Amino acid sequence: MLKLKLHWQILIAFILAIILGITIPEHSGYVRWLGDLFLRALKMIIVPLVFASIATGVANIGDAKNLGRIGIKTFSYYISTSLLAIVTGLFLVNMIKPGIGADLGFKMSIPEMTSTTGSISDILMRMIPTNIFQALYNSDMLAIIFFAILIGYFITQVQKNYSDNLLTLFNAIFEVMMKLTSFIIKFAPLGILGIVTGVVADQASDKAKLISMAQHLGVYFVTVLIGLFIHTFISLPLIIKFLGKVNPILHFKAMSLPIITAFSTSSSSATLPLTMEAVENDAGVSNKISSFVVPLGATVNMNGTALYECVAVMFIAQAYGIELTFMQQIIVVVTALLAAIGSAGIPMAGLVMMSIVLSAVNLPLEGVGLILAVDRPLDMCRTVVNVFGDTCGAVVIAKSEGETLKV
Asked: Which residue, among 188, 235, 168, has the nearest Cα to 42 in the 3D structure?
């Protein structure tokens, strides 16, 4: 029996939802509940998934301190390039404003925004909860992420028998949450069917709004592509040229196989063996560097994902008619960075991670239903950026260690 891949199921559900929303808007309630149920399931897993993934990630990476200099260089590179990607996306989405004027009729369902404005000190105050259980109950993502980082770090600081037991526990929780997340994601087509049917039904009486919806979604799609293009063909090449002292064109040619594989599979993890082989054999990076930098990059270095999440969240805010303040946009940047680092290696992980960023600035999750219509091609493109960023990191770190490269 032929089984359609998930992204094809989502596309079919999206098209069917548009048809249902236009033809029988008065009966949209029969499928709307599917969207509500799917969003509730997403909200259910966000807190435990984020807490477990970040805590285990930090605890597992804690061993990297034994590598000393190389570990510090690698983390500095990955954090810097991810921030650069996010800022690039933030600049473009504020300049192009793909969601402004969409008038999608969402304003009636917008929850009241809680206070996320103020100075940097206010953000720091929000990051440190007075009651972690209350923060967990209220899904205060900044506080949860910060506490998870602390837990992950201090797991590595206690006696080995304790740290081993705690790490086993958190790894087990994380694995369970990954299985649960994968299970919920299987129902994404039904969720999209309910969400999009409801949105289209609300606009069914005004064809101009439906056309506006498609146009603004197209502009959003192009905005993300421009951001990914700039980071891949301008930012990263400049970094490896001046810091890695390598020829960007030759390096890109040397990485052609993992890049093509990343584009076709949309998986950094599946591309990892080819990436390591190309970095060592075609770029000339030593196994000592590549065996640490590349696998770590496949886990935490998500330049393309970080840029995409930032643009997507800003687009959703614009479509809802909400103008995020400068400090709220800073929260988006920070949360997108941490969410990208903690992004799980599962299909549509960006959907779950984007829910985290939306929650951080109190935006409704319903907006993800629209952008998922164009998520598959964007997923292919941002995976290319993720993988290429890993290879650039490998040559930069290798050059800083005095290695002679082939490119």
From this structure: 188
Q: Are 74 and 292 in contact (CB under 8 A)?
A: yes
First to last CA, the chain: 47
10-31 pLDDT tens trace: 788 888 988 888 888 888 888 8
At 116 the pLDDT is 42
**Under 8 Å CB-to-CB from 189, ≥6 apart: which residues?**
6, 9, 10, 12, 13
Class of the domain covering 6-400 = mainly alpha
pLDDT tens-digit map of 372-391: 778 878 888 998 999 999 99
d(C-alpha 144, C-alpha 166), whole Å: 18
The dihedral formed by the CA atoms of 76, 81, 82 and 83, expressed in degrees to the nearest 10 = 90
CA–CA distances in Å: residue 298 to residues 146, 380, 384: 22, 15, 11
Tokens 């199921």 sit on residue: 9
| Cα 407 to Cα 394: distance, rounded to the nearest angstrom | 12
- Which pLDDT score, from 0 to 100, does residue 115 have? 42
In terms of phi and psi (left: phi > 0; alpha: psi -120 to 50; beta: otherwise), the region of 6 is alpha
Contact indicator for 46, 355 with CB cutoff of 8 Å = yes
Confidence band (pLDDT; 50, 70, 90) for 237?
very high
Which pLDDT belongs to residue 120?
60
How far, rounded to the nearest angstrom, does the alpha carbon of residue 40 sit from its chain's CA centroid?
20
The angle, 0 to 180 degrees and rounded to 10, between the axes of the packed helices 6-23 and 188-203 is: 30
Query: What does the alpha-carbon distance between residue 188 and residue 182 come to, in Å, rounded to a whole number?
Result: 10
Residue 80: per-residue pLDDT:
93
